[in-house]
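Re: the request from the purification team.
They wanted to know what the chain is likely to look like in 3D before they choose a buffer screen. I agreed to run a prediction and write the result into the notebook, where they can find it.
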Amino acid sequence: MDPVSVLRTLWRHRLLAGVVLVLTVAAMAYVLVLSPRTYASTATYALVNPKLPSTAELEADPALAALNSDNPYLRSSDNSLAAQVLVTVMNSDDTADALAAQGLSTQFAVERSAWAGQGLLLSVTADAPTADGSLATTTALGDRLVDTLRSMQTINGADDRYLFTALEVQTPGKAVEQISDRLRAVIMVAVGGVVLLFGAISIARAVDGRRAGRRGAPAGASTAAAPSPRLPIAAPSATTSAHDAPPAFRAAPHAGHSTPPALVRHRDPVPERSGLTSHRS
């Protein structure tokens, strides 16, 4: 269907199209103005490696050598192992349950920062219906991150000197409203309105076609039932022989009896008149 046909169809059903467009615009305005808002805040933490004492320091300080250095994450050749485990633990259901128990939002994410070369830079993001709720959730997540990092390293009783520490490098100063979510919802409503418009127009066209078919059905039936006109056949004249009639109009003889011959009166030919006058003798 070309654009001109689409415009003609819309104009033909302009009342229905106007109603659908008004409803779509009203829904878009509601989503844009009155729909719930979402605020997001982010904090960034850097995982700092512990400063391990050298062999000379251990020999010079017996008390330092007596400290428990059994941190399982220090035995790994990959320094980002602690960050990977921390991200997994923070994104678990236990964290969501703990936040819900405090009356905070459960919409959060803890992930590695895109700028972290070895994965030791973590970002904490929380979404909430209000700005204060988002900031409170981000702060609670940061405190839980620090506690979780310590507890997962001290499973064997390691001393604080041999632990990774979380350093906050970006504090959640303010929560920012997520306009993109509302715009995405408005676009979805607009697409739904367009689909509803063309669906309603298609139904209206189908109904019009059915009504037109019902109106044309009686006229067609009467035309089909009317008998075809027949040409009148003239009766044979008494002065005309049956053999002189055309073949199509010759009557077939009936079985069992013969057709009586037609009574034909023959006339003598009339002589042509001339200019001479005959005298009787």
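For the purification team: The two ends are 104 Å apart (CA to CA).
Please add any questions underneath this entry.
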